[in-house]
Amino acid sequence: MQRRYPDRTLRPNGLTWRIRDSGGNGTPLLLFPGGLGNADIYYNQMLDLTPDIRCICVDYPDTDFDVTADSLAALLDALALDRACMLGSSLAGYCLQVFGARHPERVDAMILANSFYNSTELSAHPLFDRSLLESVSGEELKTDWLNRLEMREADELREVQITILREGQTGELLRRRLLAAATAPEAPIILHGLFPLFIIDCADDPLLPAATRNALAERYPDAPRFTLPSGGHYPSVTQSHVYNRVILKAVPHGLA
To answer: pTM of the prediction?
Structure first.
């Protein structure tokens, strides 16, 4: 994928965004990773959904949520897109709620995947321990996560995460994203009817408890909810074929 769809960097509003763009005339879909991950984590979507969908896999800047949302609007301008469909996983799903509330006119459809709208239950998870994240260095945290990953049984997700963490994500970015998730205030609610909204979650998500998943669904009761029986926190990798079928239900697709 890296050779077929090389990455490039754009700097709308002075912030750095790294993207991989499949191009073409399909429906544009921007895909945003969670705390651990970068644009490369959506390789299964980029390879399987094109050309009907133009997959634009995005690494977003590390800054204030409102500032990021406004810079995303400028990124759409830089991509010559008036509107686009968007999918955000975990922390990125939180960020997209901020964007959707501030810039609803730029959204064709939105998918909140394995996500949340505040940090109430999430902050109780050991991986989101605020005191630890505030005291440890990024490199120490990255080393700890790599050690955890290397002790896991080998599978596709483990190999993808190790590669991304070693080669495509700094420890400080990981630390800041986890801290942002651990301290996230309640996101602004997206008003009903502004654009189609969908929810994907997994019954076996080890990071988001049922209370968090259900609270997001209750916040948007009219949003179709697709709960996968398995897939953990990264179904885009572990259940990519099922995940991609859900995307095709949510995103109008076909060549323009």
So the answer is: 0.95
